[in-house]
Amino acid sequence: MQRSDEREPESDLDVDTDVDVASLLDEEGEASGTRADPATDATAGTADSGGRLRGRLPDGPTVSVRSFLLVLALSIGGVVVGGSIPIVGSIGRFLGLFAVAFAIGLVGSRRRYLEVGLAGAVAAGVAFVLGTLTSVFAPVAVSVLSDFGLAIAGVGVGGGLVASLLGHYFGRDLRSGLTRDV
């Protein structure tokens, strides 16, 4: 049996090195107590982007693909249900996105602004383009989309993003008010 300092590394990750990991994570040698020379340091102008910024970032992954796909499916459902309301028309799509994002903010324990905003933007953009295709005679719809397709999708994406983010914000605000001690 070999001593632990004499054994062969089992993988590349097991190789013992003399690198100070803390000095790699903190900028300008804050971990070792020494300051880097600003003349030789390539990131001298970005002193706030190193160790101080790292402390403000959340630990772990902030975006989950699984939660994004769930939010996207719910957002598509909200767009379809909101768009099927006869009197309000396409504004109902935004109301459906708002309601879905509000519910996610109210029920969820984590902030999911990125997932909700991206899912709402995608769902509304696709809904606006498909709504244009189905609301006009097919050859005319193709002509309209070839001329104004990017603008139509942009309106849908922008409106969906705003509606989703506002809904999520208000849902989280209500959750915060309901769970806070009085």
From TrEMBL:
Sorted UniProt keywords: Membrane, Transmembrane, Transmembrane helix
The species this protein was found in: Halobellus clavatus
Region of interest called Disordered, as start-end residue ranges on this chain: 24-58
Transmembrane segments: 63-85, 91-109, 116-142, 148-170
Composition bias, Low complexity: 33-50
Source organism superkingdom: Archaea
Entry protein name: Uncharacterized protein
